[in-house]
Amino acid sequence: MQCELCGRNVDKLVPVRVEGVEMLVCSDCAKYGVTPKTYSRKPRLGMKGSPKGTESRKVYRPKRDVFDTLKTIVEDYGEIIREARIRKGMNIEELARKIGMRVSTLQKIESGQLEPEEKYIRRLEKELNISLYEEGGGEYSNQQSKSFTLGDFIKVRK
Ligand SMILES: [Zn+2]
Fold it and tell me: Which GO molecular function annotation, any one, does this entry have (predicted)?
């Protein structure tokens, strides 16, 4: 009889499991495998590395504070809007129409009762040439449009 592991011809073959595969091997090779008796006591999963995984899986969750990422609107946004509007010679209805907002909403905003939504803040900043964000968020967008105008873009593309 031939040992399935080393190929040697021996009188007696021992059934063993080597890496999960059942083989008939010689007594020399038997020590490399696990005899069925020993094996059968172990759960099948035992062969594929025990799932001991007791260490908690680390879930990557970026630490993100909403107040860190969101720009803060200036405290006296209402006054700034009203003053800028008056400076531009617009009445409240005109401004509301220009930025696509209801007059009643704009009135609330100007009186500081309601914080405008971001899209309206953008429009107000653009329309009134003001900055409603702290940290000069408005300034930044102004700088951008100054340094890179559509005209520049067209020139570059030519
Ligand atoms: Zn052998």
Answer: DNA binding
Burial code (b: 16+ CB inside 10 Å, e: under 16) for 5-43 equals: beeeebeebbebbeeeeebbbbeebbeebbeeeebeeee
- 88 pLDDT band, cuts 50/70/90, is very high
Q: How far is ligand 1, taken at its centre, from the CA of residue 41, in Å?
A: 24
Q: How far is the CA of 42 from the centre of ligand 1 (A)?
A: 24
CA 46 – ligand 1 centroid, Å:
25
Domain 66-145 has CATH 1.20.1250.20: no
Gap from CA of 20 to ligand 1 centroid (Å): 17
Residue (of 146, 144, 100) closest to 120 by Cα position: 100
